[in-house]
Structures are given as structure tokens and as C-alpha cells.
Amino acid sequence: MLRKTSDISFTVNGKSEVVADVPEDMHLGHYLREVLGKTGTRIGCSIGECRACTVMVRHRPGEPPVTKQSCMIAMRHVNGWEVTTIEGIAQETLLHPVQQAILDEDAMQCGYCAAGFAVAGVVAYEQMAALPNQDPETVIEAVAGHNLCRCTGYTRYLKAIRRAIDERAPAPALANLALKLTEKQAVEQFDLLGLLEPNVEKGAVHNLRADFSLDAIETPLAFSLAASPAPARGYVPLFANPLLELTRLLRDAAEIEHSLLVQYLYAAFSVKCPEYLSLAGWASHRYGGRPLHVLGVAIEEMTHLDVVNGLLVELGAAPHLGRQQFPYEQDIYPFAFSLEALSLETLAKYVYVEAPADRIAPQQQDPADQAFVDQLYGVLGTARPNQVGSLYRKIEAVMGELRNREPDLIDFNLWLKKLEEVRIEGEAEHFELFKSIFLGTHSALPGSQVWAPGSPQYPSYALHVETGLPPAGEDVKDELLPALRHIGNLNYWAVCMLLDQSYRRRGRYHNASRRHMTGPLRSVASALALHGEGVPFDALPQGYAPGLDDRQNLALTLTMVREITQAEIRFSRFLPPDYSKRCALETVAELLVTL
Amino acid sequence: MGENRPKWMEADLRRAKITGEKVFASDYRSDDLGWGEDCAHALVVRATCVTKKFKRLDLTKLSVENQPSKVITEETIRLANYDTSIGVMPPPRGATWTVTRQICLADTVPEFLSQPLAILIYDNFLTFRRAAQEIREDRGIVVYEDVRPQTLPANPTLDEILDDWRTLEVDTSLARQHYLWSAAPYPASSQYSNGPLTFNAGAWSRADPTDPVKESATATAIYADLALLKPDQLCVETTTYTQQVDPAFLEPESGLARFKDGTLTILAGTQSASGERRALSAFVKPGSDIKKVELWGADLGGGFGGRDMAPHLFQLAFAAIFAGKPVRLAYDRFEQFQAGLKRHGSAVHSLVSATKDGLLDRALMHIVFEGGAEINLSNPVMSLGSLHATSFYKFRQASVNGVVTRRAVPVVGSMRGFGIPQVNFNIETAVDKLAVLGLKDDPVAFRRRNILRHDPLPTSADNVLAGTPLKFHVANAEVCDLAARHPLWTGRDAARANAAKGGIYRGVGFAGCMQAYGTSADPQYAAVQLEFDGTVTVWSETVDMGQGARQSLAFVIEAAFHTRAQVQLGTAEPFAAFSALMLQNVQNVQNVPKKWGDRSSASASKTAFFHVHVVREALAALLRFRILPALRLITGSMLDDDAITAGWGEKGFVVGARTVALSEIAQHLEASGRERMVIAHGYFANGWSQARFVEGTVEHRSFADAIGFARDFLATPTLVDVFDRVFPDPAGPGKTPVPRSGYAAGAHLIAVEIDPTAGAIRVTDAVAFLDAGEPIIENVLDGQVEGGLQMGIAHALFEDLPRESGQDRYVNFDRYIMPRASDVSGIRLEQTRIPLPPGGALNANDAFIRHKGAGEVTMTTVAAAISNAVAHALGHHSADAWPNRLPIRYSDLKIARAPGA
Questions:
Q1: By CB neighbour count within 10 A (0-12 exposed, 13-18 middle, 19+ buried), where does A173 fall?
Q2: Do B595 and B658 share a domain, yes or no?
């Protein structure tokens, strides 16, 4: 089984933590508590909902901080962050004004949530210091409004934070109390850790150093690949230049991972719950390890999308949040995008595309394996989708050639390792899971007979999908299902735009996008499923980065999130009881800090 | 224990909590306790199925990397000669079933969802977490076997059980409680006068505990008469349902334990350390490797009743016995939802009638509490709920019949309110309906006319449902009077009409109650010690779970002794030796009441009335027997107590020209070989015990019944000679101890706005009326009122567990919705405290106490007040205007008219 580790550099309460081989799947909250012994960050739910685990994070020195839920953030995401925990809020014996106000107001009862409130309060305090024209009530609601307290009526916490903000001394030094470093020191610290954006030319710009004279012919990629010791059989690159070809393939990979993610999500919400909950799974932070349910695979596809987009950005290309286009490349795409409930037919496709080639070869040695492939091909009929693994082999081959030509372009070893992990996770783990579901041997299923049409034990509902886009010239109807579809779409589009911006900014909005997925989007998907529908996941025709530049795109992302808040007000009466309306507000606040 | 003084022994932990210091059990690691860094992690594998037989674990299905180092099963424990039923509560009176073991026996159907099947021991944290995920996601490591469906117990619906129960048909293995009260026309009949009531084989019987059961013709006739009640203009029929909820304290249960050199040591956050110590002591028996059990209680990250004899601690004990090293058992939230104690769901049916003169007349109620598989505190919860089913009203006749069911779901136990919020939701909506629809009366005025009145003279007092005369103060009348005059109530129709202009349904509802505090018999201990620096340390068995026990006890000491205090809560010492000595001394004494000298750390609604009282009695004894004699020796003063203490202030006693500090007195006591620590025991059952104590020439009267002195908290104490020990008579003519005698009234006026555009029900205003007496610390009491309102609103409008929790391993705060700040912080909350009479909460011949227990009553009436407010908002169009099912959802409202109509 894969156990992924990363070398990670970040700071905790002003102290640098440069650590090798950190388990990528360990979440920050556990790292703080179990490795660093900082148990003041309390964990109440492990899914980012109670906010007892709130820590303060600055993404760049001097930038206003934001809150992060340390219990749902895997260590792989914290690279470059400056983290302040409750232990780092006070200066020696001098409490931060927010801490003091919480004590003065007698705000806490049992106090388990108090550290989370204090840290969130300090973030609100600092955001108000940095952007004083905001409405403090809105900032407090956005930053600390989701913090859960079971004992109190919240009023005193809010009053304490507000009081600290109102009484804030005008001296700018207070605004950076928690940083504990001067601006200059902080920049040096970040620089030392290599956390500042590298000021080097990368990607295609790097190519400008090449000789562009007419007689300087670049060796076509196809030639190099054919001559390589492990040629990718049957693969003919489109471009001569490996960077261009790699960019093409990676964008294809991004589309595929995104498409699979959406289709698996749709399938997961078709599963009958609670009977088959172990099959559907639950969308929350996972430790690594083989996913054992459909949502687990979807979550892992998300990490694959991260890897592919991360590499694109590393190569100087834009991240890609689009889905497969028409016409798609027949030799690369696994199958036509289609939102379908979980069934034997859909499972056959999933099994096939995730499989390593040898495991689905028509002739197998083992009789059980032979029976499996016979059954698989029986269900597939004549369809032969492409396997995802084959695309990654092509990517790895092109990477190899690019390394030969531009060895200092990126950290090839690191990225090849990550790509290999993506391929293995698909071929080993996703394949095995889908195979077990297909065969009825998954622990949640009583046997293969469940897939018989009409079986009373059939594991899924036949969800149907309706577009959330109203007919031209019409508004979204003021009815339950159109409203849910629309809000589902808005959250999906916001997630895509947030991710696009996040990939360009060292993953700083991943936490926000995950909140939208595991919060509002999950809630809407569950509610739609009760009505026999799935989330439409309509593609946004304008794409997810329609702005002229990064700043415009970020502003457009903010605007999309505001669309959610507007729709929430309009369709309030249709929102499921577990739909969180604070999610969008919180994201708005987080984006405003960057803008 | 490590060299560092653990935080849980400090006086005030608020600063520690706000700066991230280690405070809670979940913060501590093995090394913090001096146990070394090598600590195992325990993971409980639980049953998610009660329709199949558990055969065995197949760990080959767990990833190779995530294999445990040890596996503890029922067999492991049994073969090592440990009792697997340790900590399981015995069946209560009237019931014959109980869960048989903490961990499921192989080859049997699990007794309940989430019952432990095995405890896996891991040597490192990451492997443990990853394995926990694999198991939650169900690797299929639990091997089950089908059983014939007919061998499984029946699983009737709640409505089916309620229907049967209304004819008094029920599985006879279940615990039941019947209260029958009648003033006329039959001869008076009540538990107080005639003994407890039972119903068996179609016959009612009354009996006191010393007489054989005999059929009661009176009870039979009264019940038959009540059974003829039918809904009509003057009789409302109400069926209400409340949901099972999770206490949802923020800190998932967690603890550390070690078994070394014959001592089993546990650090945990628990509400019931005394009960658990008692249960764990069963490990210590001849031939056992366990020679001693220590349980250290850390402050709790919330409790609300959900950590009272919870199974977590016993699982931790088993893990420690077999882990071979220190071990940590820390649930995550998923496990907490899956396995933690829950509040009982309920179905309540009532028929409540009034005379046309507007007097409540008769009530017939049937209550079904949804229990879990294990008893825990189900029976007391059902019993207390039943006792409160007729709220604070006087009826001519009432029959209340409670039963608690057995379901194969996780343990259901006590939770804030102890069964009373469930019944209050029924009676308070029923009375509201009766007033508005039946009598066209003002609902508060109607209530005021019918409330129970207290009187120090039992024969003049009204009687509660059990027949107990209300001889102690309870502000039922004042609560109704204040509500009736409150502008929120008097202006409710105008505000409703005004809101209607904006398309909003606005309504105001009232609900009240009187709620007993304490238990039927409350033994309490306290110890205080004068330290060399002049400060005072107090030891108490209570725990702090956010209700301010720590601060309150410190405040009481500081106010009484003008000095700083240290507070050590949840401790076994110094009470263990003291109680043993007490009990030994009364071996041949007659009439020692039930539970006298028992150890109890129960903390809900008990700080102010119970723990504080005994602390004060201990302080008084320390002053009288030690401090004042020493002061006289130091100063040579011959002044009497009043005169010599008149000059006592922060710097000490001013006696003539001298100021003697407490530190000097402490030094003097030490030098003269006198103890500085006093331990006191008091007992409350229908009044406080009292006695006269004599040591040498000093005599001291106290509302405590045992006082002793000790050199330190581990030393054997010496008891002071006791005379004239008096226990109030705990029983009436029926020879049955009164179930409760101390009550606090409480009520809420709540305004709601229903916005049909937003599909939302929102509480906008609340007035909490509270008969708690004087607050010890105002902010603490106010905080209880604020928190009680929030929890009440959560119960009424938000919380909803998946039906069969325990099976669903993914319940968490994303689906289990509780109010956030914006849901409740905008509510205009006003608190109205009803002052006590000059004599205090009790009567002239009893202890002078100016506080009552109030932590629970603050949430009891919220749900009913909201339902009544909704009915007002919707125009009281019919009985359907009152929501009868919690949580109340907009989509369930019966909206029949336009706003304001």
C-alpha cells in the first residue's frame, strides 16, 4: 500500500519546521498535538465543522491571516504556511486582547471550544486591523460564526471579540502581535525556508534560452521516445516539443480526473443509505490508504487532480478545471462523460478504465480471474474504453524526455514519484475497489445477486439528472428541485474557480473549496437524491478562469461565491436542514483578505 | 504522576483554557503523567448489526500495515478471570433485563449497536488512526452469521408501543412507574399516603415496602374513572414526540490508563468518578492481579449527563489491563456519535381536562421513553420524567404511567433535564391548548389559577403527583405572575399584528415547570484545609464540566474566609477513609437512612444547593474547632465567636491591637499538633441532616452529620464526637421515601417569527424566569440560563439523529445540526430571577440556604414555549397549530391562515 510522505517546510508560532518524510495524510491538527505536543488546539469533530481546532494561517508575511480547520487539512497542504496556534497567541504572560476579553466577559463554560474561538477572534481582529473599512459584525460572523459551542449562548464570545476589535489600539504593531516577527524578519524567515514564490523563469519561458535559428532543429519528441529504453508502445506524440506535449497530456489528465471525480460523486450519491452506507462512504478528511467506498475514490481523484494541476503550474502552465471537450481524443479519454447511478454497467466501465492492462486481459491464468474478465466483458459488450493508467505512462515517458532536455526545469524526481503514485492508486486501489463492488464481494454487499435487475437488495437508486440551467429566457424556477439544482451548480462552479485560483497560489483555497464540497454540495446532493435526482454538475461554459489576469479571476471567483449567498437568500426555504449558509460567507471573507 | 502539578488540580482553569495549556483529559499524554513516552492507542471495534450473530474478527482483511499489536476480546478478558460486566448497571426495580457484558461474547447476537466486539491495541498513533479509518469504512473484518429472524427480539415502533401502553400492556421485563394522585371524590390516594403503585396482571396494587402487595380498590376505581376521559371542549388529547439526541459535548471522550505494579490508574474526564471508582473496585478481589484502582478526574469538555457511567471508562480499563504499557483511548467524533450516551426519545399521550370554571381537573398520561440496550440511568430518568409529567399544576385526579423501552441501540442515559423536557413538551402544550381552545382563556392566567402552592406546614401545602406536600419554597405563582405582566406577553397580539404587515407570522408562547434538584437522597462530602500561606484548599467530589463548580466553590471560600482558594474536584481522597470510618461507626445504629455516607460525584444542578452547603459547613467547623481556638491562644482574647470574627478581613483577624493572619494561625496549628483539614458530610432527603458536635470544651451545631479532622488528605481522619444526629423523616404515611422534595420553578416566554418566504422559524425574544435563589457568581448563573436556552432551542428546532445511531458510522456535526452563533446570539434574552423569601430555600427549622439547583431547569420549558409561540403565530386555528414533534421544522407546520389572521 502506498504511504506517501513529503518534505514540508512551515512555521508554527514563529518557529520553523523543516521536516522530511512527513506522512502526507496526517492532518495538521494531529501533527500539532501528537508530534509537536501542542494540545491547545483541540479536536472536536475531525471534519472541520466544530472549529475547536482553528489555527491562524498567514500565506505570506504581513498578509492578513485567515482561519484554517487544522483537523481537515492534510500535511501535504501546509507547505509554506505560517501557522499560529493558541499557544502562540499571547506574548509571554500578556494575553492578546481577544483572550483577555474572553476572560473578562466570562465567555466560556467548559472551555473546550475556547481556544478555537480565541484564535478565530484574533483572526477577525487582525483582518479588521488590515481592512478597517469592513463591517466588524460581518467579519466576526464570517470568521468565527461557524465555531460551535454547546454550553453557552455564544453572545459573550461575540461580545468579547467585538470588544477587543473596538478597543484595539491604533498602533500597527498590535496587528502583528501573533506574527511575533517584524516584517523584515518574517520575509527573511520565509525566504530561508524557500517559501516565497520563486523568482525564476519557468515553463515555456525557460525555452526562450533555446537556439531559435532556422538550422537549429529540435529533435522531434517522437524520435526520442522511440529510441528510449522503455518506449510507450503505440503512443505517437502530437508535438515535437516535449513541454508542449506534456502540457497537452496533463490538461487531458486534468479533464479526465475531474470528469471521473464528478461521475464517481454522482454515483456515490445514488447509493441507498443507510443500508449501503459503507459502500457510499462519507465525504470528510481521510487518512491515506486504499479507499473502501465510492466517495473515497472520488476524494482520491481530487488529490490526483491536485497533482496534475500542481504539475501544470510548476511547468508554467495554467491549471485546468475544465472537463472533457467535444470532440475528445479517442485514444486518451476513458469514456464519454455521463452522470449515471451506480449499476453493474457503470461499474464495468469504472473497473475497465482503472485497471492495469494485464488484469483485464481477455485470457487469465487463474479461473477466478477468468470468470471475472468474462463477466466484465459480458457487461461491457463491445465497448472498450481507454485505461487511465495508459495516459499516465505516456506522461511519464514525456517527462523523461523533457528531463533529458531541460534537467533543471523542475524537480523531476519529485513529480515522477507523484505521478507514479497517481497511477498506482488508480490501477491498484480504485480498480480493486470497483472490482469488489462489481463482483459483490465488497464488505457492504451481501453478494453479486444484489446487481440483478429488480433485486430488492439493489444497492442504488436510479437517479436521473436534470440540468440546472433554466431554458433560455427563463429564470430559475421558484421551486424545490430547480432551486437545489441551481445551488448545487453554483457551489460546484465556485469550487472549480476556487481550485483554479488555489493552484495558482500554493493551494491556499483548497480548504475553502473542500468546505463547499463537504458542506453545501454534499447537503444538496443528499437532498436531491431523496427526490430521485443527482446534482447536475453542469459545466460552466465560460470556464473557471475567465478573467484577464489572476486578480480579475480572483475577483470573479469572489463574485461567484456571492452568487451563492444571493441564491441562498432567494431559495432559503428550500435549503436542507444541514445546509450551511455560513460557508459562502466565510469564503468571501477569505478571498477579500487576498484581494 | 509526573513532577509537574497537573492542571486539573488548580483553582481556576479559565486562563489555562484560553492559552492552550493542558487541561482536559484529551490533552494529556503518557509522558505528562510521568509514565514515559511509550504509549499504546486503543481502538474499539463495534457492532454495527444486531440481526446477526457475531462470530469472530477476521484481521486478515485489515491492511497488513494496520495490524494491531494486541487484540482484546471477551474471551481474553474472561480467561484472565476479569469480569466483563464490570460497570454495567444492574436491572432496576421493575425490570428484569440488562446488558450482560461490556464486550460482546463471540457466537452471540450483539446486545446493541455499537457494543464493543474487541479492543485493538496499537503501538503508534498513525497506524491507529489509519486502522480506525479502515474499520469505520468497513473492511469487513467482523464476521457475522445469519440467524433465523424469529429468534430475534421484536422491534415494535414507538407508536405501537405507545398504543399498547395506553392499555397498560407492555413487555413485563421493562421498568415502569405509575403515579396515581386523587383528592376527590374517592379517598385520597397517593404514593406519599398509601405507598407505591404497581400494575400487574390487570390489577392495581398499593403497598409500602414492608407490607405485602395488596390490591387497591381505590386505585383501580380511580384509574377506571380516568380511563373514561375523552377529548371534548374541556378535555384535550395530545400526543407528543421528542427525538433521541446526543449530548454533543465538544470534547469526545478520552482517557489514559496504566496497569503497573498491581495498580490500575486511569485519567479521564468523567461526571461520575465516585460511581466508576465503586464499579472498578470490583477488580480488586482476592487472587486478582489488580490490587488498587486509582481514577483521576480531569475537567470535562462538556458533559450534560453524557459522561455518567459511560462505557468508555470501562473499555479503557480493559485496554490498560492487557496493553502491557500505558494506553490511550480517545474517541473521535464519529465514534462518539456511534457509541456515546444519548438522551431518551419519547412519545407521550395525554388527556387533560378542566372544569368549566377554569380549573384543571383530571389528567391521564402515558409516557414511553426510548431506552437503549443498557440500563444506565434509564429508569431514574423515566421515573423522574413521570413525576414531573403534570408540571407545576394541581389536579383533582391524575394518573401518570411511564415505561422505558429496551432497544438495541447505543446506551441511552441521563442528559440535562433528566427526562423532564420530554414530558414538559407534552403537558405544557396540552395546557396551552386547553386554555386557548377549550376555555378561551389567557394561557398564563389559566396556569396561574392552577399552580401548586407550597407551605411550610405540610397539611396546608399542595401535593405533587406523588402526594408529597410541597413544604419547601417553590416560586410557581411568582413565575406566572411575572410572565403575565411582562410586556412580551401583554404586547404579544399587537406585535403579532405588526409583524403580519411584513408577511411574518409572529407569536409568543409561555411554558413553565417546577423541577426537582438533587436526587431522592443526597449524601455530600467536602473537605477544606487551611494552608500555611493562609489560603484554603477545598476538596469536593463534584466535577466541573462548564457549570462553574470550580469557580463557585472558590468564591464561597473566598467570601467566607477572606482568602484565596484552591479547588480540587472529582477526588476520591480525602473522603475514602472518612466515609469508611463514618460507616463503621454507625454499624449498630438504627435508622440510618438509605444512601447515607455513599459517595457521589453527581454534579448536575447540585453545586449551589448541595456542594456549597457542605463546604460551608466544613468551613464553619474548621473555624469553630481550630481557627478560633488557635486565635484565642495566640491573642489571649476571651471574646466570643461573633465578637472575635467581627474584625476578620483580608489581612486576618483584628483582635485588639493585633492582626493575626490565617497563615499565622496555620503555623500555630501545625506547631501545636492540631490538624488543619476538616472533612464534613451532610445528607439531604426531605431536608438536611443535622447534629451537635463536641470536641473538648467546644460544641458546634451543624447541618452536617459527620465531621472529622485529618493531618492531610491521605491521612486517616479522626471523627468529632457527634450527638443528637437528626435526619428529617424521608417518608409519609405510605412509608415510601418521598421521591423529591426540593423544587425550583422555571419558565420561558419565547417569541418566534415564522418567515414563509425563507421557510424559517426563528426565536427572536426570550425571557427566562428562574427560581434559583441568589447566584453564587452572577455570571455563572446567567451563563447557565444562556446555555440552557441554546440547548433548548437546539432540542426544539435543530437536533436530529439518524434513527438507528450506532449503525451509521458517519454521523458528525455536518449532519447533526446544532445552533451556531448567528442562530441564537441575536435573540433578545432577558433573565428574571425570582427572589427567595427571607428564610431561604428551606424552612425555619432547616438549614439556611439561599440557592437552589438550576442548571437543568434552564432548558426544560424551551421546546414547549416555542410550540406554544408557533401556535399563537399561526392563529391558534386548531389543535394542529401546536407542533407536537421535535425538532419542529417549517415544513411540518400546519399553516391555515394568513399572517395575523
A1: exposed
A2: yes
Q: By residue range, what is the domain housing residue B508? A: 345-518+738-892
Q: What is the pTM of this model?
A: 0.93
Task: Write down which residue in B691, B726, B761 finishes a domain.
Answer: B726
Topology, domain A242-451: Ferritin (1.20.1260)
Q: How confident is the model at residue A331 (pLDDT cuts 50, 70, 90)?
A: low
- Which residue of chain B comes nearest to A282, CA vs CA? B810
Length of chain A: 595
How many structural domains are present in chain B? Answer: 3
Q: Is B183 contained in some domain?
A: no
- Please indicate whether, in this complex, the C-beta atoms of A46 and B812 are within 8 angstroms of each other: yes
pLDDT band at A384 (very low <50, low <70, confident <90, very high): confident
Report the residue from A154, A292, A582 with minimal CB separation from B139: A292
Report if residue B181 sits inside a domain: no
Could you tell me if B429 and B496 lie in one domain? yes
A 143-172 near B (Cβ less than 8 A): 144-158
Q: Which residues contact B880 (CB under 8 A, 6 or more apart)?
A: B894, B896
* Closest-CA distance of chain B to residue A570, Å: 8
Beta strands in B314-394, from DSSP E residues, in sequence order = 327-330, 345-354, 360-370
Q: Cβ B14–A292 below 8 Å, yes or no?
A: no
SS3 A94: strand
Same domain, B482 and B556: no
Which residues does residue B731 pair with via DSSP β-bridges, in sequence order? Answer: B737
Three-class secondary structure of residue B123 per DSSP:
coil
The reply to whether B125 and B269 lie within a common domain is yes
Check if A106 contacts B (Cβ < 8 Å).
Answer: yes
- The rounded distance, in Å, linking the Cα atoms of B302 and B308 is 12
Residues B331, B358: one domain? no
CB atoms A115 and B20 under 8 Å: yes
Mean pLDDT of A155-174: 82
Query: Which of 429-488 (A) contact B at CB < 8 A?
Result: 442-444
Cβ distance A65 to A57 under 8 Å? yes
Grid cell, residue A390, equals: 495508459
> Strand A82-84's sheet: what is its strand order?
A15-23, A5-12, A82-84, A54-58, A66-69
CATH fold for the domain made of A1-200: Ubiquitin-like (UB roll) (3.10.20)
Amino acid at B24: F
Question: Residues 6 or more apart from A407 whose CB is under 8 A from it?
Answer: none
- Chain B residue closest in CA terms to A2: B65
Report the alpha-carbon angle B118-B123-B128, nearest 5.
60
Q: Would you state the cell numbers that stand for residue B469, as one nine-digit string?
A: 406536600
- CB-based contact B821 A144, cutoff 8 Å: yes
What's the confidence (pLDDT) of residue A174? 40
Question: Are B355 and B276 in the same domain?
Answer: no
What is the number of residues in chain B?
901
* ipTM field: 0.94
